[in-house]
Queue: 3 jobs
Job 1
Amino acid sequence: APKAHPVSSEPRRIQTDIERTLGLVRRLDTEKGIQGNVLSSGDHEKSDVDKSHMGSMGPIVIVRGLTTVKGLEGVELLDTLLTYLWRIHGVDYYGMSETNEAKGLRHVRTDNKTPSTTNINAADWEKKLDTYWQERLTGQDPMVILTAKDKIDAAAAEVLEPHVRKIRDEKYGWKYGCGAKGCTKLFHAPEFVYKHLRLKHPEIVLEVTSNLREDIYSQNYM
Ligand SMILES: [Zn+2]
């Protein structure tokens, strides 16, 4: 499997990553409508209070099985969270990527005695990792953005239709002309006109799709 930067194995980094992955689990579960996940339920909040007299460094998640109660913390907790994010949400945390299903290999931690195989220095790598997931935590679900984009494209074709001139050609059958003022371009299919409109007359496309964009975004996020 591809390796994360060795700095990922430092105890300080482990704690940061526990907090971050807990946040991600909550956020992604919410986005996908997953409720009652033991990994992100209230239990570890309570243990945050305990940590002062237990001397623990960070959150503990209490996992209650049918006959067992287990407290997860530190590396064990982090690995559980990372595995959950990977299997359920397709998140390769150290690889800084997210897909709709877990495919291939995700990045794994190496112990920090292994010589680094990367030239990137630790601080840069950490900054990249932090920025990437902080943006994910405050931004929008990339899968939703993708869907919205598809919807916009599909709907754009509809609203662009009036800008396509259908022309009967004696020799070649139906032709599709660009409806922009002063433009005489002809195409074999309406899709080519849409494409041409996007490339050559972006102002038309922008005008007819601006309302559409607002509609779709408000449908998705309001
Ligand atoms: Zn044109």
Job 2
Amino acid sequence: MTPELPSDVADALGLLLGTGDATHQALRRQVPHLRISARCTCGCGTTYFDLDADSVPAAPSPAGTVVVAQAQLFDAEEDWIGEVLAFARNGYLTWLEVCSITDSPLTLTEALRMLRSSGVSGTSGDHG
Ligand SMILES: [Zn+2]
């Protein structure tokens, strides 16, 4: 039995991963199969995943660990305060990182609120 992914994690991945390219489409199909393996202990929203690689195909992303999606985070004054990054290893989602450039860590809830208010849709490094 696979416990369901928390909705904040699923929502963040849904916002980060677009629908326009094959890599993101394949990664989206992995989301229902993800389980949380660990969360960062510093208070930020960084979350590590477990995924049964037999249950879903790998995405066509480069071998090794790569950033497959990212979005910048801006506060209410539109100052850049961090970013959210999705990493995959060998084509499978492995972790979601919430980076803060300020002294206080950003939670996933805060990151989601900023992603939604900025209307971000997924970006990926390997196409224009
Ligand atoms: Zn942390």
Job 3
Amino acid sequence: MSSRTSETVDQPDAAQVVDSMERMGGGPYPGYRRSSAKGSCFVGTFTPTGEAAALTTAAHLQYQQVPVTVRFSNSEGNPHTPDAAPVTRGMATRFHLPDSTETDLLGITVPLFVASTPQEFLGLTEALRPDPTTGHPDPATVQAYVAAHPHLAPAVMQQPPVPVSYGSAAYWAIHAFIWADARGGRQPVRYRWEPESGRAVLTTEEAATRTADYLTEEFHERLRSGPVAFTLRVQLGEDGDPTHDPTTPWPDTRKELTAGRLELTAPVQDQEHWSGQRFDPTRITAGITLSDDPVLAFRAHAYAESFDRRSRRQRGGWSG
Ligand code: HEM
């Protein structure tokens, strides 16, 4: 039996994984998310093109515009990491649907995830635990982990861009989801937000001149000149394309459609309220189902665990 198969069977529990994430990030940082601790929230609208309407009954992907709330973030669990650090960025979007329910879509600035299973993710976070003497992960331990799991190498080697702006990066939702149409037809999909102004990154020299909070400052400044827009691009999977593995991309030649256009117009009025919210990639709506990706299913438990830990601290009852 390959290590990949056996790791699928021995699923860790969410508390074990969140403990390991806290150690990896030098935390815990009470009151903060155990990943993507630093972020800021904005409001806007999502206008579907109707191109997806034949393939899914999802309310926000038909013809009616819906309000959205978006949280941009830096991936680190340490909320004090400066914005110019070469880490992935997150974009968590909540669509407020006409029937007063909600659905979330979370993306990051690289196309592949670093683990095929929760167990592999736990193994990697353990390998990345800082060495107490240097304060950094031991490169030999990380290399040994990747050598033992060679299918992870392309994802682990990805270099996240340091973007000019939260509004100049593409964000991949990574997992496959399954769309359902009105007649019960099923279509595997993968989502990606593309910035309408184009992708733009900083050179190392430019990044060195940016302030610790430049991404939020720049976004506020950008909004003063008008809305910041993204298009929702959707890759359509074909027979045989794997839906269970977030480390494996589908061929670039797969057909894509544009499901809609997001326009962010202003910061949320109450940042504290919104930073206290829990976005969840498994908060789907009728017309969308989860794929068989074990990482996607596991995330719901890890996010609930992180939410629980940070909320207990916010109520003042926890000292972790
Ligand atoms: C085993 C896999 C993963 C684990 C255990 C994990 C864990 C976490 C945790 C604990 C949080 C903080 C949740 C909270 O307190 O609200 C978080 C946030 C986040 N994660 Fe993951 N994650 C995983 C995979 C991914 C993947 C594949 C993506 C790519 C889309 C992703 C994108 C994000 C984003 C964008 C946030 C910030 C959400 C927000 O702004 O509230 N994560 N993750």
